Amino acid sequence: MKRKLIAIALSLCLLLPVLAIAVQAETAPAYTIGNPYASVNWGTWEQYKTQLHVHTDASDGAVPKDEVIEIHYELDYDILAITDHMTMGVAWDQVPRTVPIMRMTNPDRTGMRFITPLTPERRLEITTGSGPTRDGRARGPMLEVTQGNELNGAVFSNNHLNGFFTEYGQGKLGVDGDWLRPVRGVHADGGLTVINHPGDVHRAYEDDDPLTFFDRNPRWIDKFAYLFVNYDSSVGMDISSGWDGKTKYDRLLYDRIIEKTIPHGVLPWIYTYSDAHSPGEFDRGWTVHLMPDLTVPALRKSMEDGTFFGFSRSATFEMPDGFRGEGPAPRVSNIAVDQAAGTITIAASEYTEIVWTTNRTKEVARGATLDIAEYGDEIGTFVRAYLIGPGGVLYVQPFTILRAGETLEKECIRNPFDYSWLLGWWADFGTFAKTWFPPWRAVWWVTTQFDPALDAPWLADLLYNWVYSRVF
Questions:
Q1: Count of domains in the chain?
Q2: Domain for residue 68, yes or no?
Q3: Average pLDDT for consecutive 10-residue bins of the chain (472 residues)?
Q4: Is 339 in the same domain as 294?
Q5: DSSP code of 210?
Q6: Does 400 share its domain with 453?
Q7: 399 and 462 share one domain
Q8: Burial of 453 (0-12, 13-18, 19+ CB in 10 A)
Q9: Full-prediction pTM beyond 0.85?
């Protein structure tokens, strides 16, 4: 009898691991959900209103530098990066090195005026929050972000991108249709890049059938997917810029891009900007960064990790034409991902609707909670949400979706051969020529490197006070 009991006990011990494996198999999550906000401590981290793309009269804007900073301070921005074309951002009480040919492209805006920075005293007040806004309100500090500029300044098709945390790009003319050279240059210098308003270049908004434009023109998908897969410093893409007239189909492009990059383990992030050049444009789009503290290193990490939202006052793809949001933006207070249940829940305020979309910008659901299993094969490799409110549209970063036992097939992504290759060779020859051909070097230096205000103050006084003021 005793032996029988021992045998039964041993049998049960041997069966326990098998039963455990069977139970585990039954309860294993059906999905692995990639959550870009997994590192966020929703109880302690702050949300910072951020402008990462704005212009002054140092390149082609109509508003002086000190005015641009004061306006953002009054509009309660927490973080500001001035990104003038081809012009390296500097401290707010300093004059940047301007590029003559860039300022002269829009003399009606710049007036070819002397650049007016903040005083050192006012800069200290704004960056520490020790001084009021110009309308007398007290508020906290606004973070100064330097080392930013908009690359490819002097190109015809506006194939622009922002460089951040890098000294690369001062006075560089760029190549029409080419993003690869500046991305490579910033990458080598240890900075980050974000693709700006690609709709300006592909111009899907002018097509007779924009909803199928990227099916018929897949080179645009590969053009950017190639950058994101090969350069981890290229962290995202602007999907809504300004009043969203030319960028309205960039959400379609973005979804097609990440459909290709996700199998490679790469997910570029959603960015939105005001891209303001003139009065009245400074609050039409921004990002909201979730960070443990208000510092430049924390901002960079947020930009790399995707712990932020994009926001636009105008979203002409999701909303009726002519929509202009007013009032507070939708605010997310928590995002909960339940891996076992296969659900994503967004807690928020100041919104009227939460819309969930998947591959190829297909709408799959509405509501605060998405149950992935409920929609089965309708959901592809990712889902993303946007919140609609009276103030505008808030874009949430994508959540990747991987089914149990699924392996995503990596598609080979090549940089398409187009006219930018030929222009790039010509630009490379120009770089060689300016080294060995003095007349060309003189033209290049005068138009892109020489700044009268910094290099020849006596000449600057003559130009700004007598020549430019009469011509422009």
A1: 2
A2: no
A3: 40 42 57 97 98 97 97 98 97 96 89 94 98 95 97 92 96 94 97 98 96 96 98 98 96 98 98 97 98 98 98 93 93 97 97 97 97 93 98 98 92 92 83 82 89 87 77 72
A4: yes
A5: G
A6: no
A7: no
A8: middle
A9: yes
